[in-house]
Amino acid sequence: MKQVIVGHRGVAGHCPENTKVSVQNAIDMGLKWVEVDVQPTKDEILVVCHDHTIDRCSNGQGRVDDYTLEQLQQLDFGSWFDATFKGEPIMTLASLLELAHQHQLSLNIEVKIDRQNVAHVAQNLKTQLDNAQLPPSSILLSSFSHGIIRELHQHCPGYALGVLSERLSKADWQLLEEVSAFSCNLNYRWVSEKHINALHDKGYQVWCYTVNQPEKFKHLAIVDGVFSDFPERFLG
């Protein structure tokens, strides 16, 4: 199987992360996969945003879930990266799913929840995925939270799950088996050849983040996928 190159938050090295322009850049680059982060607004609309606050990536302040979607759409999520992206709006999961359908793009959706009702968010996500025109085979759901992964396993049957971790732990191994995970997504800085081989032996794929300098990842040739802010460095 050919190694999967995943655009991290779209193409975060060239565009404001997790925005439509960033995902479109990945599409224009010829990528088949992008990774994004999803969480709910105050009115329970799933939007694409990594941090639980909007301070870093917009001209606003405060928590995502303290704003309604309409309020968030008044803010600028592009200028922080570069003035040429001024006015770039926040992206909803619904608009992302439509864009992905139009371009046969596969998505790794990382679910980011801290104080929300996890089961409710998982059910909301399932409803949106089922209403989209994307085949389940083009979706990978992931999270660092073991609680979230368990809820996704319960509420989103038929969708592949990826267990995210900085370093592979005993608890990660237990969860991988419990939810019949598709992959273990690990920090490339800490992953070992021994762990990669052990995961492969158990039938799990190994995807590593966030690899921006291919020559610095000594296990690059034996992993199944890599996430990168500069995916063009892996193409060709």
Automatic annotation (TrEMBL):
Pfam families attached to this UniProt entry: GDPD (PF03009)
Domain GP-PDE: 3-236
SUPFAM superfamilies in the record: PLC-like phosphodiesterases
InterPro entries with a match to the protein in the record: GP_PDE_dom, PLC-like_Pdiesterase_TIM-brl
Protein name according to UniProt: Glycerophosphodiester phosphodiesterase family protein
